[in-house]
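batch job 7 of whatever, protein = Protein kinase involved in polysaccharide biosynthesis
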Amino acid sequence: MDKKINQQTSGPTPPQEALGALPVDVAARAAGPQPPSVTSMINRTLAHWYVAVLVAIAGVAFTAVVVKSRKPVYRSETVIFYREGVKSTYLGPDGPDPLRTLAARLKETLLARSNLEKVVTEFDLFPEVREKRGMVDAVDRLRSKVIFKTRSPDTFAISAEGQTREQAQEVTQRLADILVEETTRVRRTQAKITTEFLDAELKRAEQDVEKAETELAAFLAEHPEFAAETASPGGAQAGAAVRASRAAATGSDPTLEALERQAPRLRARLTGKPEPAAAAPAAPPPALVRQKEQAEQELAAARRDLMDKQSRFTEQHPDVRTAMLRVNNAQAALRRAEDALILPPAPVVDVAATDEAEKAKIRAQLQKIEREIAARKSAKLGNQADASETAKQIINIETEWSRLSREKARAQQRLADLEGKSFRAEMAASSEQGGYSAQIEVLDPAFRPSAPSGPSRMILALGGLVMSIAAGIAAAAARGIVLDDRVYDMEDIDRMALAPVLVVVPAAARGSRRRRG
C-alpha cells in the first residue's frame, strides 16, 4: 500500500501502465478532433434503426399510392415524307422553298393552335381542363404530348400520346392528315394569290406601256426628225448618256452641241437619209443585261455544286448526274442570254418630208440654225454667250424626247419582268393543281401500340422500394451521425479532446448479471 502511495505522490503515472487501461492515441488527441471512422458511423446508424424503418414504410406507402393511381399512357408514331415534284430550276427563282427551312415550317404548321384545337374538339381530349381552364390550356396540354422529329432532310416523324391504344393511334394519324391537308392548302392558296397579284400588276404595266407609247407617238408626230433615233434600241438613253459624258469631259458649249445635233436631223428630213453622226450608239436593254448576269451566276453556282458532288461521289451517282444536268441547263441559258444581247441593225426609218411647203419650212429652219452655229463659233464669248430662243426650244424638245423614251423603256422593262414572273407563277399554280409540285405524303401510317410507353408498374414499384430503403438508411445515418451527440465508444471520447483517460470500465457480461440476480 505504501509503495503504491509513494508511486502516486512521486508523479503522474500513465493510465495504461497504472490501471491497465486500453491504449490511447495521445498524439491523435493532441492534434484535435478527428472525423468518425466507418465503423463508428455504422454503429451510430444501427443505433437508430427505427428511423430507417419508419422512413422506408412511408416511402413504400407513397410508392404504392403512385403506382396505383398512375394511368397507362400509350404512344403511337407516324412517318411523313416530303416528295419533291417539279424541280425549282424549271420554275425559276420563285420556285418551291428550299429544304433547309422545311422542318421548321412543318413543325410550326403542325403545332399551330388552330390545328391542335381541331384534334382536341374531334376526340374530346382533356374535358376537365377545358371545363376549368378553357380551350387554350387544353391545346397547350396536347402540344406537350406531341413530338415532331427530323429523321432526314425530307423525312419526319410525328408521335403523340393517348390514354388508350386506339386514341393514341387515331390522334397521331389525324395530326399527320391535318399537316398534309394544311400544307397543301397553304401552298395552293399562296400560288393562287401570287398569280392573281401578278395578273393585276401585269394589266397595269400594259396600260403604262400603252400610255408611254401613245405619248411618244404624239411627240414623234409633232417632231418626226427624232424617229430615226427612236428606232434604234436604247437610242434615246444612249444618246443622252453620250452627250452628258462629252459635255463633262470637254467642257464644251451645250447650246452649240444642241444646234449641231438638230441640223443633221433637219437635213435627213430633206434628203430622207439620216446622217451617221445623228444616230446615237445603241445600248442593250437593261433587262437582257440583267438576264445574262443571272445566267452567269447560275452557271457559277452549278459548277461549284458539281465540283462538290464529284469530290464526294462517283460519276454514276444520281447527285452527280443531277449536278451535271444543272450545269448543262445553265450553259444553255447563258448562250440564249448572250444571243439576245446581239442587237439587230437599226431599221432605216424614212423621215423625209413629202410636202413642198413643209420642205420650205424645214429649209428655213435649217438655214437659221446654220447661221446661228456659225455665229456662235465665231463669237468672242464662246460658250458664255446666251442661248437664243431657237436653241432653248431645241434643248426643251430633246429633253422631252429623252423623258418620253426613258418612260417607255422603263414601262417595257417592267412589263417584261412581270411577264416572266407571271409565267413562273402560272407554272407553279398549274403544278400545284395537277399534283406535280412538292407534296407531303404519309410514309408509315400510325400504328396501334401494344404496350404502354414508359416504365411499367413493376419497375416503378421496385424503384420506389429501393429508393424508400435508401432514404430510410440515409435518414438513420443523418440522425445518428449528425444529430446524436451521445458517446458510444472510445473513439467518441478521443474526438472530444478531453483530459487523458484514467479508467476504462468494460461492459459487464449479460450472463454474469443473470447469475447475480
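notes: The CA atoms of residues 225 and 347 lie 15 Å apart.
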